[in-house]
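Students often ask why inverse folding is considered easier than folding. One informal answer: many sequences map to the same fold, so there is more than one right answer. In these notes we will look at a single instance of the problem. The structure comes first.
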């Protein structure tokens, strides 16, 4: 993991790329069985007759895998601490692909009331290895300012 970054270490417009996470059918089914037990996440054959026309990862599984990639790609001092955002899944995530992320820094706001921290607004785009977007996340993160 790279050196920890503070609020002052970022620039609006900066893009940070990272990730390589393979999506396996067994992992899709395991996550779904625990957290989103719907047929299109659990059974390849039954999923063919659904809206998704085949096995697809839960959006929440996609979000969880994206979170792992964000943590590995964006080494924030104090950790990745979310303070709200929006998420979209424009395309189903299929098994057998590899995910990557591109994180764009949209806004940097030092706190007026808490000088030790600020807010970083980022847009995280999760791609399949084909380049297609499977998730977008715009989030506000609480980020420490550099001490001293």
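Output (designed amino acids):
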């Amino acid at each position: 993991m790279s050196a920890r970054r503070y609020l002052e270490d970022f620039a609006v417009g900066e893009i940070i790329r990272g990730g390589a996470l393979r999506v396996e059918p067994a992992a899709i089914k395991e996550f779904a069985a625990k957290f989103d037990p719907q047929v299109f996440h659990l059974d390849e054959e039954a999923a063919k007759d659904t809206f998704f026309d085949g096995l697809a990862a839960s959006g929440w599984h996609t979000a969880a895998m994206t979170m792992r990639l964000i943590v590995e790609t964006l080494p924030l001092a104090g950790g990745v601490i979310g303070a709200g955002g929006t998420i979209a899944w424009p395309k189903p995530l299929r098994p057998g692909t590899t995910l990557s992320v591109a994180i764009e820094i949209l806004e940097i706001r030092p706190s007026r009331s808490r000088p030790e921290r600020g807010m970083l607004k980022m847009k995280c785009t999760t791609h399949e290895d084909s380049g297609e977007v499977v998730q977008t996340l715009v989030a506000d993160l609480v980020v420490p300012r550099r001490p001293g």
